[in-house]
Automatic annotation (TrEMBL), chain A:
Keywords, ordered alphabetically: Oxidoreductase
GO cellular component annotations of the record: cytoplasm
GO molecular function: oxidoreductase activity
One Pfam family matching this protein: DAO
Residue ranges of domain Rhodanese in the record: 22-65
Official protein name in the record: N-methylglutamate dehydrogenase subunit A
Lineage: Bacteria, Pseudomonadati, Thermodesulfobacteriota, Desulfobacteria, Desulfobacterales
The keyword RNA-binding belongs to this UniProt entry's keyword annotation: no
InterPro entries xrefs: FAD-dep_OxRdtase, FAD/NAD-bd_sf, Rhodanese-like_dom
TrEMBL record, chain B:
Domain Aminomethyltransferase C-terminal: 885-965
Protein name (Swiss-Prot/TrEMBL): N-methylglutamate dehydrogenase subunit C
InterPro entries with a match to the protein in the record: 2Fe-2S-bd_N (IPR042204), 2Fe-2S_ferredoxin-like_sf (IPR036010), FAD/NAD-bd_sf (IPR036188), FAD/NAD-binding_dom (IPR023753), GcvT/YgfZ/DmdA (IPR028896), GcvT/YgfZ_C (IPR029043), GcvT_C (IPR013977), GCVT_N (IPR006222)
Keyword Oxidoreductase: yes
Length: 407, 973
């Protein structure tokens, strides 16, 4: 490591005229899929086509929080596997992904929320995932900065404590996977825009890019918030996805203060301390679909109001930076992973909303299996997009969502 | 303590007024007007802090808070930028991020280990073997972070917020900002001017050079400031840092209060019709070895220390600059008593000849085309190596202060935050905006101009343009101002130098993150070729100085190092808040904003225990017994009353009102009859139940409807959205807040009712599902419905909010002899559960449809013409066996009720408990659960899995619903 640095994911190469598989989107899901395609299935002739640079989108803008306390039995095992992959990937990639296994504390502010938490906790425990319902005092013992008095807008009734979760350094995952995939021969083409997918007799034949046409029989679109628009634009498949801007921010760096990820549904706020010492916080989404990633004055103020109440010592800390990313929300807050349906050789992995980071490792593994074997792995089957045609929502969220007026 | 100038006309301090403070446990004194850092400097402090990674000594550098060099802990608050925080009596100031002291830091040795910490080193180590990572991580966390805050810290002070509306907001109170404000105000517009320093004047304020006709720049600055302050149309917000700029001319900032203000800091959010950005320039740091050693400071810092704070920053100065301001400062500081060994100017030519002459007159050596390459001195600079730009010739000079600056860089943050695209201009070396949005203008040095008259004129021009944008003047006036501008000197050539000729191992491009030129090279070599990625990998610009130091140099350097022809120099992203802002300040007054019902106070007086439920504050319990036994029993045995005012209430009228109802509700609303209440539900396109409530017909084409509390806010939009293409003629009014509701329930309800009215309210005259409009006591008009949500004889009174108090008291008095008591939301929850009346969100979730919860009977499938929302999905779902069903259950062996949210399982999850309670009315545990349809048959055994149950299971059995009063005699008679 002390010798002259080499490009981590290879020298810039010419785009070839054909690949065994093309992945549109150089984010975490695309990189992870490419990595596993090459590593597990020997499919190394893969090109990742990225319009900007790898990690430009959600991969570089997310909360970095990982956890496996989802609501339904379809989601828990997938996220649990993803969680278990962090230490394995760290080793495999020989890159420190900086998994801080600090545990997540999800605050509950009403009797109804406690009930909801109990169901999630029971589901986790039933699947062997550690998660507990604790009371306000126990929560305070874990996070001494919490205000558990009655005189705040949403007094803390208790919390869902999920020790296996934590934080992973998101940029490290991007770079580590890129390097890992490249080692097996995957090519990463940045500053290259995919402009179309060619099909013939219901089969994928090529991908058009800003740098020429690539012949391929298999293509995956996993372009985060941009996926739904790409899929519709290229193949006319309309997905029930609303894209919203979601914002996050950090404070100036502090010595250790928060030893767990803290989040609150009622306050629409999570907070965790990065290894650098910044308190990273966010959660709120714009209430109107948009692709802007613009920040709003309203939101940073809202966040300050929320933190002032339940983590009041942070009033003496300063915000340093706010940014926005995209969340592609489905009506049931569960993703769409599907392939070989409308068009043979076409795969999609999208609709992750704000869960794309925590799931990326396991999803990459199974999407790679899907593409290699051309059969949907059992664990991904519930996430098919035809469920929306049958009006069978997945129940990952209990409450109604309101991204658009028709929901 | 050093002697300070006390007679300068540019001073911002009052040397006669002492301010006592505590630094590292000892008492020090400064003077009024001092910043913490200037007071410390006057007391001989030179090392203010240690750097993040290498623990290098750091000193005063910019005076405007562009880096973390002078951050300290002040009165328990970490990361305070002491260089622009005013000193106050009794302050306690401490160093941070040091082991020992800033002077003698035991971690100082880390500086020698930089070879072991190349860019991104932490990604490549400490993970092998895996078990060392958790230990390493703890150390990293302790080492990282700058300040420290106690978990029980309570932020003192008062924080306020204002949201002013104005015609023009001017960002920056320098000469351009002031002339802009005056020009716009002259046109009769309301103007707000924001200035981050505690005074107006900008870079005129501390300069003694001539403005015009023998008037010094600082005098001109003071004159303009007086004009601005005296102008009635201008609101001056001094000591107000602009922190955010958004589209549509929204500008945010925060103001620091003075002793006279009622706030310590206040959040300011300005909505303007036009924005003028006159933020001027900061200095572009000069990059050379040890360019951040204490004693190295920027031109403005050195000069302002003397001129504003009366402190000569050193006795022997060396200058290495790239701009005429540097020459001017050298002359002024020389005249104030600083010995100057040499002034190196990176520019080979182009200096103002008068300044060159003035330097010569003072025998100050001017080295054109020279630059500092290394600062010497372990903790403080004592010598500097200079060389020609090409690095060929070198010379050393002794000094105790090195004034260094590569040139200027415009403060473009307000532009980029407002989504304005910037281009790198080769002539000025600035990032400039070619296209500005409507209503946004820039003025002053940000344009690359330097001449005082040009700067003022650009301000006037921007002010007039803003006035035109606001419709306050015509195009001719803009043209005249543009012509005046053209007659004056335009942009000046900027210095091109990015780094001195050094290898860069100790040349810092970002002070906060200890990012050197070398680490940037390593980053680019590793494949990170875009400035934005370089930033992420090398951390440059991600520290508390928020890119103040590397903001301009980083993109220049990245472009230079890659030397790719034709690749434009791209600025890195600037993000709000551009000045770090307290969370307390952003939070402002932080009012709680929950709605209260019209009889809130009466409920509280009756010992109601409140909960925030959605947008409302409601009474959930009326005693500390959260099982609500008494409340429940009283409703079952006597009579209770509940404040139901949070229900959504709407009036829908117009010739096409019925069509709208048919579209939205699943039932056939044409069957509505006067004097009858119809209960129905609304679905979404997936057939999922989103709301339920009642509809009554008040007259022809005139309906009154109720919705659930949580849904009230969206209901009007829901109707509008689903009828948007039909052009139907109907109106809908949300009267949720103007009406209150009292629910009177229990076997004695009629007896109570009869006492407040003379009308016949017998079961025959006012049967179940009946509706009457009545008048109580000749004055209280009420809509009365006979309902039975809790399973008892029950009336719901809807009256105007203003009558709620009277009606409440009326019922309370009338009910006294029948044992009337309040009941709250939780008691209602249990009562209705016993009756198996569902609450949406409790017995349903997002994916639950109308059929799943057993409300299929409401759906009229014959009204196809109505295109009822959700009908298509319901038809599809009818034959879908995979759906959940709502079932009632009782516990085996008279066991306790499972906890809400427990699962129904076998080898997989098969459903979950929606609501379950130990019922006082039935003397057994009952509940409702959502389960897979195979488990929905009466008699099915349910295996229930609760959290923390281990291997234990409890069992229930599906039973018919409802549990209480199955044939409804209590409710209907």
């Amino acid at each position: 490591m002390f010798s002259k640095q080499k490009p981590m994911w290879g020298e810039k190469t010419q785009l070839k005229s054909s690949y065994d598989a093309v992945i549109i989107g150089g984010g975490l899901h695309g990189l992870a899929t490419a990595y596993y395609l090459a590593k597990e299935h020997g499919i190394t002739d893969v090109a990742i086509i990225e319009k900007n640079y790898i990690g430009f989108g959600g991969a570089g803008r997310n909360t970095a929080i990982v956890r496996a306390n989802q609501r339904t039995q379809y989601n828990v095992p997938l996220y649990n596997e993803a969680l278990k992959l962090w230490p394995i990937l760290t080793k495999e990639l020989d890159y420190n992904l900086m998994f801080n296994n600090c545990g997540n504390l999800n605050l509950m502010h009403s009797e109804a929320a406690m009930k909801a938490a109990r169901m999630t906790i029971a589901t986790a425990q039933f699947h062997g995932v550690e998660s507990h319902l604790i009371d306000a005092k126990e929560a305070k013992e874990l996070v001494p900065a919490l205000n558990i008095s009655e005189d705040i807008t949403f007094p803390i009734h208790g919390a869902m404590f999920h020790p296996p979760g934590g934080i992973v350094r998101h940029d490290a995952v991007v770079w580590g996977l890129a390097r890992g995939a490249n080692k097996y021969g995957v090519e990463i083409h940045q500053q290259t825009e995919a402009t179309g997918i060619k099909t013939q007799n219901g089969k994928v034949t090529a991908v058009e890019t800003s740098r020429g046409t690539i012949n391929t029989k298999q293509v995956l679109i996993s372009a985060g918030g941009y996926s739904a628009a790409l899929i519709y634009g290229m193949l006319g498949i309309k997905l029930p996805i609303s894209v919203l801007t979601i914002q996050a921010m950090v404070t100036q760096p502090l010595k250790p203060l928060l030893n767990h990820v803290v989040s609150s549904g009622a306050y629409h706020c999570y907070a965790n301390q990065t290894l650098k010492g910044e308190v990273a916080t966010g959660a709120h989404m714009d209430q109107w679909p948009n692709y802007t990633t613009q920040n709003t004055a309203h939101y940073i103020k809202h966040q300050a109001e929320a933190l002032s109440e339940f983590l009041p010592c942070l009033r003496g800390v300063k915000f340093m930076r706010i940014w926005g990313g995209l969340a592609d929300m489905t009506p049931d807050m569960a993703p769409i992973m599907d392939g070989n349906d409308h068009v043979e050789g076409f795969y999609m992995d999208c609709g992750w909303g704000y869960f794309g980071f925590k799931s990326c490792s396991a999803v990459g593994k199974y999407m790679a299996q899907f593409m290699a074997e051309k059969e949907c792995p059992e664990i991904l089957k519930p996430f098919n997009y035809r469920r929306y045609e049958k009006h069978q929502l997945m129940g990952e969220t209990a409450a109604l969502v309101n991204y658009t007026p028709d929901n | 303590m050093m002697t300070r100038f006390n007679q300068l006309p540019t001073l911002k301090i009052d040397p006669t007024k002492k301010v006592i403070f505590n630094y590292k446990g000892k008492t020090y004194s400064g003077v009024e007007g001092d910043t913490i850092a200037s007071a410390l400097y006057a007391n001989g402090v030179r090392i203010y802090a240690r750097s993040l990674k290498y623990h290098r000594p750091r000193g005063l550098y910019s005076l405007d808070g562009e880096c973390s060099n002078t951050m300290m802990e002040v009165d328990g608050i970490p990361n305070v930028r002491t260089e622009n925080t005013l000193l106050k009596q009794g302050m306690t100031v401490k160093e941070q991020n040091v082991k020992g002291s800033a002077e003698k830091d035991m971690l100082g040795f880390l500086d020698k280990l930089d070879w072991a910490m190349p860019a991104g080193f932490y990604y490549k180590m400490m993970h092998k073997p895996a078990r060392i990572w958790p230990i390493a991580m703890k150390q990293i966390r302790k080492t990282a972070g700058l300040g420290e805050i106690s978990p029980d810290f309570e932020m003192p002070g008062k924080f306020d917020e204002i949201f002013p509306r104005t015609d023009v907001v001017v960002i920056g109170g320098g000469p351009a900002g002031m002339t802009a404000a005056l020009a716009a105000a002259e046109k009769g517009l309301r103007v707000i001017i924001m200035e981050s320093r505690p005074w107006l004047g900008g870079f005129f304020d501390y300069r003694t050079a001539e403005y015009k006709d023998g008037v010094a720049l600082y005098q001109r600055g003071q004159d303009l400031a007086q004009q601005v302050e005296a102008n009635e149309n201008i609101r001056v917000l001094k000591h107000t840092a602009m922190v955010g700029a958004y589209s549509n001319c929204l500008v945010t900032g925060f103001q620091t209060g003075t002793d006279k203000d009622a706030f310590n800091e206040r959040y300011v959010e300005i909505r303007a019709n036009s924005v003028i950005v006159a933020t001027g320039c900061i200095e572009r740091p000069l990059i050379f070895d040890n360019n951040e050693r204490p004693g190295v400071m920027q031109v403005g810092c050195a000069l302002r220390m003397a001129r504003n704070y009366g402190i000569l920053p050193g006795e022997n100065g060396i200058f290495s600059v790239g701009h005429d301001l540097g020459l001017e400062a050298a002359i002024d500081l020389f005249d104030m008593g600083m010995k100057i060994g040499c002034v190196a100017d990176v520019r080979e030519d182009g200096q103002d000849p008068e300044l060159v002459l003035a330097l010569a007159k003072r025998n100050i050596l001017l080295l054109k085309g020279w630059v500092a390459t290394e600062a010497h001195g372990k903790k403080q600079v004592n010598k500097v190596s200079m060389s020609s730009i090409d690095g060929m010739i070198t010379r050393d000079f002794d000094c105790d202060v090195l004034v260094a600056s590569a040139g200027l860089t415009p403060v473009t943050g307000p532009l980029t935050m407002a989504q304005i695209k910037l281009r790198h201009d080769d002539f000025t070396g600035f990032f400039v905006a070619d296209e500005m949005p409507e209503n946004t203008f820039s003025a002053g040095r940000i344009l690359g101009i330097n001449n005082a008259l040009s700067i003022e004129c650009s301000g006037t021009l921007a002010g007039i343009k803003a006035a035109k944008a606001c419709g306050a003047c015509d195009a001719a006036e803009v043209e005249a101002a543009e012509a005046a501008m053209k007659a004056l000197p335009g942009p000046v050539r900027g210095s091109k130098l990015v780094t001195a000729p050094v290898k860069g191992r100790k040349s810092f491009i970002c002070f906060d993150e200890d990012t050197t030129i070398k680490s940037v090279k390593q980053t680019i070599d590793s494949g990170f070729d875009v400035p934005e990625l370089v930033k992420r990998y090398s951390s440059a610009g991600l520290g508390p100085g928020q890119s103040g130091i590397p903001g301009h140099n980083l993109p220049l350097y990245v472009a230079k190092y890659q030397a790719l022809a034709g690749v434009p120099v791209k600025p890195t992203t600037v993000r709000a808040p551009i000045v770090p802002t307290f969370i307390a300040t952003y939070a402002g007054t932080n009012h709680t904003m929950h709605k209260r019902t019209p009889i809130h106070n009466l409920q509280v007086a009756d010992k109601g225990i409140l909960r925030k439920i959605g947008v409302w504050e409601r009474v959930r319990y009326f005693s500390e017994d959260y099982s609500c036994k008494k409340e429940i029993e009283n409703v079952r045995n006597n009579v209770g009353m509940l404040d139901g005012s949070t229900l959504g209430k709407f009036r829908l009228h117009g010739p096409d009102a019925l069509k709208a109802l048919q579209r939205i509700y699943v039932s056939d609303m044409s069957k509505l009859k006067p004097g009858r209440v119809k209960y129905s539900a609304m679905c979404n396109d997936d057939g999922c139940v989103i709301d339920d409530g009642v509809v009554v017909m008040l007259g022809e084409n005139d309906y009154y409807i109720t919705t659930s509390t949580g849904r009230a806010g969206q209901t009007v939009e829901w109707f509008r959205y689903h009828t948007r293409y039909d052009g139907w003629d109907f109106s809908m009014v949300n009267i949720t807040d103007s009406m209150g509701v009292i629910n009177l329930s229990g076997p004695n309800a009629r007896k109570v009712f009869e006492k407040i009215t003379d009308e016949d309210v017998s079961n025959e005259a006012f049967p179940y599902s009946g509706f009457k409009e009545m008048l109580f006591k000749d004055v209280i008009p009420a809509k009365v419905m006979r309902l039975g949500f809790v399973g008892e004889l029950s009336y719901e009174f809807h009256v105007a909010s203003s009558y709620m108090t009277s009606l409440w008291q009326l019922l309370k008095e009338a009910g006294a002899e029948f044992g009337i008591q309040n009941f709250g939301v939780e008691a209602q929850n249990v009562l209705r559960m016993e009756k198996c009346h569902i609450i949406l969100g409790q017995e349903s979730e997002q994916r639950t449809n109308l059929l799943d919860v057993g409300l299929g009977f409401l759906w009229d499938r014959k009204k196809a013409d109505a295109k009822t929302v959700g009908a298509v999905a319901l038809r599809q779902a009818e034959n879908d066996p995979s759906r959940f069903k709502l079932v009632g259950f009782k516990m085996e062996n008279n066991g306790r009720a499972p906890r809400d949210g427990a699962l129904v399982v076998d080898s997989k999850v098969r459903g979950y408990i929606a609501t379950a309670r130990d019922s006082f009315s039935l003397n057994e545990a009952v509940g409702m659960a959502l389960v897979e349809s195979e488990l929905a048959k009466v008699g099915t055994r349910l295996e229930i899995y609760e959290d923390e149950c281990g291997d234990e299971r409890i069992y229930g059995k599906v039973v018919p619903m409802p549990f209480y009063d199955p044939d409804g005699t209590r409710m209907k008679s």
